[in-house]
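lol ok so funny story. i was supposed to be doing the assay writeup but got distracted and ended up predicting the structure for this chain instead. priorities right. anyway since i did it might as well share w the group, maybe its usefull for someone
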Amino acid sequence: MSDADLEEIRKGRLAQLQQQQQQQQQGGPGGGPGGAGQDEQRKQQEAEARASILSQILHPEAADRLGRIRIVKESRATDVENRLIMLARSGQLRAKVTEEQLKELLGAVAENNEREGTAGGKIVVSRRKGGWDDDDDLLDF
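and the output, tada:
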């Protein structure tokens, strides 16, 4: 990711924050009957900003993988997105994130969640013993 791209992201975020600050000064935080509509609009703007940033910092394959992860476990995908956005804003990303780099980041987030105890429980597959017992032996006479 080039410096120009990062600067564009920063400018967009700064403009968004200034716009939010102006809205809060004009109408107050959630004041009045339109407060719920403003909250919904703000959430939509934040989602659009996140999607824009992620599309700029992820290769298409990595974005697809993150989308599949979101289907399975939304909290994990959100954690990874937050970390990616933080890395982009701090200037630590030099190029677009590949699928392999995303896998490494997923491992780091999973490891961090396990240390904190917020993994939400591991998935344990228990298979029945003797499940391969066939009645094919009866046909072999």
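The mean pLDDT is 80. Residues 30 and 36 are 7 Å apart (CA to CA).
back to the writeup now i swear
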